[in-house]
Design a protein that fits this description.
Length: about 80
Amino acid sequence: MGDEESLRLANTIVHPHGLSAKFLGEARSVGVGGDFRTYTRVLVLIGPHPGNEVLASLATEISNQTGINRVTFQLAAATS
């Protein structure tokens, strides 16, 4: 699965939770696929914090469906 297809699928997964997904620049994460190392882009989820359980579930689903092996969440500074 290519990067653009992976990103499109990741966005389909996270949009119902009010989040969007984008790649973290050209950063790559190393993983293992079979007997080989894999280097996939790092995905960032952006939006309101949906809760840790939801984030964990989304990260697992994205990894299982897209092959992306690193999913992060962008924290925003608190406003008053």
